[in-house]
């Protein structure tokens, strides 16, 4: 049938029907929220607390893949998504299918993979427990496995690959719709499993931390946002199951729609806990009005890793300059704890005995804990007279 004859058989009202604007608007709104949250996370980690780590790098990779997914949505909606499949010209439909292929590779496989690895690496910061680490590294390995599996599936769906969107390619061999559906369900099931694991695993650990209850509830509530991603994954699975019998999938592209929302919600839920140093005062999540104190709890871990190790343990004090926000270690030397100077932090007194420092804190009427403001006299510091407010943290490795 020629294109002219085909055009005369299409109802003009049916051809004018389109959901493209509605779908694209919702996608853009949620993606904008996810993108802004990720940008604020990068600012907080890289500029405010200067603790940009591997988990942040993987989050940036996930966001970049998400940008490619948004670009694919724009192309898809321009070339057929939201319209009835029998009203889409063949040339536009080919562009839609090509854009969907790249969306599947970059967003459905790699973006989710990078996101889950980022979440796991972030959770590794919470505890040094052996079993906790083993579980998280197992989940990272599992995530890498099904991400690579999804990538290979999309590459081998049709041979040659261009046959997925170009009907002019001869000799194309593709999976059946049922097999493609099964591959999609496997990928969704893996995403749901990891979402549930990452949302549930840290809850007992966070609740056991010596933090204000308000902070613990905030972190648990944010991490529980992963359950919204689980709900969206279930919705996506329902429409993937219906894919085999779908005859007008472009008019309501629910499966890719819920998949994109699942990614956006996952990015927001993963980035929100890292914003506490920036939003702590606004949301009353800080234990004090000292912004540096709440902002540098990530960097304490890095300073801890530099403490001297004796056998299987290392003990010492970390003292934080509330002016610069940096940590400096107090290394054990003989019977005394001596300040190890780092950078411009030359204000620390030398030969500070561990027990004497603890007694000074207790004698000032303050609580002796890892979260106490100590006003300690400094001696033997050339050119300095008086006292300097510091934060002293007892740490063990």
Automatic annotation (TrEMBL):
Chief place of localization: membrane
InterPro entries: Rhodopsin_dom_fungi (IPR049326), SAT4-like (IPR052337)
GO CC annotation terms, alphabetical: membrane
Residue ranges annotated for the Rhodopsin domain, each copy included: 40-280
Residue ranges crossing the lipid bilayer per the database entry: 20-44, 56-75, 136-157, 185-207, 219-245, 251-275
Record's bilayer topology term: Multi-pass membrane protein
Presence of keyword Transmembrane: yes
Subcellular localization(s) per the UniProt record: Membrane
Keywords from the named record: Membrane, Transmembrane, Transmembrane helix
Pfam families named among the record's database cross-references: Fung_rhodopsin
Coiled-coil region: none
Family indicated by similarity: Belongs to the SAT4 family.
UniProt-listed PANTHER family: INTEGRAL MEMBRANE PROTEIN, PTH11-LIKE INTEGRAL MEMBRANE PROTEIN (AFU_ORTHOLOGUE AFUA_5G11245)
Protein name, as recorded: Rhodopsin domain-containing protein
